[in-house]
Amino acid sequence: MIQLNSVSKHYPAGFGKTYVLRNINLDINEGEFVSIMGPSGSGKSTLLHILGLLEEPSEGEYLFLDHPVQKLSEKRRTELHRTQIGFVFQAYHLIDELTVYENIETPLLYKGLSSSERKSKVADILDRFNIVGKKDLFPNQLSGGQQQLVGIARAIITEPRVIFADEPTGNLHSEHAKKIMEVFKELNENDNVTIVQVTHSEVNAEYGNRVINLKDGWID
Questions:
Q1: In angstroms, what CA-CA distances link 19 with 27, 40, 43?
Q2: Strands of 67-68's sheet in order across
Q3: pTM here?
Q4: In 3D, which of 80, 52, 61 has the Cα closest to residue 195?
Q5: Helices 74-83 & 100-111, crossing angle to 10 degrees?
Q6: pLDDT of 106-117, one tens digit each?
Q7: How far apart are CA 81 and CA 135, in angstroms?
Q8: Nearest to 60 by CA among 49, 52, 50, 74
């Protein structure tokens, strides 16, 4: 599903280059739950952004669903984002001016679904996440754990094949963090959604089936 061949990422620095990632070779199969770990500054978030088509590698080749990413048109890349990829961020990234219902519905508007289809899908997911009673609230009226649940609901409403999660429980109490990780595990096991998470937490990493350790931009 995901294949990186000798991928590096660098930025210009004076007359030279500063490498953030070096010679990364990585295969992730459909249905895996992979955790990327490593100290701060090891390149974890950069790797996740490359995997999620938010950044380009400086060198090497990235194949996503057998497509060479560097050769994708902007239109095709956007299409993959909207149909195959879900993102969950540490900072939630909900739209403050929209209700819970509207935040979850937003990705469906981009897909051009009819009003009745959107209503049905959002109702299903509100029920699944047990947040029907919160649908008319705004993000600032929710706890951190509830906001992250809404973020995950929004990420999976389009039924993506892979979810990229960047420190998804970084701002949460342990009880909320556990609930979020159990949601990911259920998505992975019951819906066969591939999950790639960046985490500092050994406990969170144990929910997955493989850990990739990064150190100074290299796979350790």
A1: 21, 15, 9
A2: 16-28, 2-13, 59-64, 67-68
A3: 0.90
A4: 52
A5: 140
A6: 999 988 889 999
A7: 25
A8: 50
